[in-house]
Design brief:
By secondary structure, the chain is an all-beta fold. 0% of the residues lie in helices and 54% in strands. A hairpin with a 4-residue loop joins strand 5 and strand 6.
Length: 119
């Protein structure tokens, strides 16, 4: 069973950078044709796809967040990471990492981690 676990601070101050990591177990982030995604859900809103990093390291960003977002990966740790710059209270959300396939969409999810942006 593939497992994903988000980690990072739960509280970030406005204008700072939100940094999260996702550790993957029982699957390799370099296996062909898998994509590793970040998704968030703000209070009272639906799921928002933030983007993904592919098995080869190619990154894809949501146009609405692209100017503030950066994805990276550490293949030695089987981790991929998110950095979101210049956060505001509107970036308060539960952040999820997920595995994505072209056929099945998001087939495995992390449990999610609450991030609050507040001074």
């Amino acid at each position: 069973q593939v497992q994903l676990q988000e980690s990072g601070p739960g509280l970030v101050k406005p204008s700072q950078t939100l940094s999260l990591s996702c550790t993957v177990s029982s699957a390799s982030i370099t296996t062909d044709y898998y994509y590793w995604s970040w998704i968030r859900q703000s209070p009272g809103k639906g799921l928002e796809w933030m983007g993904a990093i592919s098995y080869s390291g190619t990154t894809y960003y949501s146009p609405s967040l692209e100017s503030r977002t950066h994805f990276s990966r550490d293949t030695s740790k089987n981790q991929f990471s998110l950095q979101l710059r210049s956060v505001t209270p509107e970036d308060t959300a539960v952040y999820y990492c997920a595995r994505v396939t072209v056929v099945d969409g998001c087939d495995f999810w992390g449990q999610g981690t609450q991030v609050t942006v507040s001074s």
